[in-house]
Amino acid sequence: MYRKIAGAILCLSGVLLYITYFICGALAGAGKLYVFYDSSIQHLTTFGVVLFIVGLLYMIWDEILDYQKNRKA
Questions:
Q1: Which of 56, 57, 63, 70 is found 20 to 30 A from 46 (Cα to Cα)?
Q2: What is the CA radius of gyration of the chain?
Q3: How far is CA 69 from CA 55, 56, 59, in A?
Q4: pLDDT in tens, 14-29
Q5: Are 47 and 18 in contact (CB under 8 A)?
Q6: Three-state secondary structure along the chain?
Q7: Dihedral (CA of 18, 19, 23, 25) sign
Q8: Which residues contact 21 (CB under 8 A, 6 or more apart)?
Q9: pLDDT at 39 over 70
Q10: Smallest Cα–Cα separation from 21: which of 33, 32, 29?
């Protein structure tokens, strides 16, 4: 159960990091083509996707453990 909650929190954090990149671009960009071309903020999308995938894997791992536990009982 706790792995599902942790996985959901990781997924939420990943989504928030992913959309933060676009929100910052919308606020700072206002008509520019490449707002953060040479900026370190580009890594937000990468970190967001990685956190989302780790969260999904964590939830899948908990589902597998629950299935194995219920199958033995």
A1: 63
A2: 17
A3: 21, 20, 15
A4: 999 989 888 887 777 6
A5: no
A6: CHHHHHHHHHHHHHHHHHHHHHHHHHHHHCCCCCCCCCCHHHHHHHHHHHHHHHHHHHHHHHHHHHHHHHHHC
A7: positive
A8: 36, 41, 42, 44, 45, 48
A9: no
A10: 29
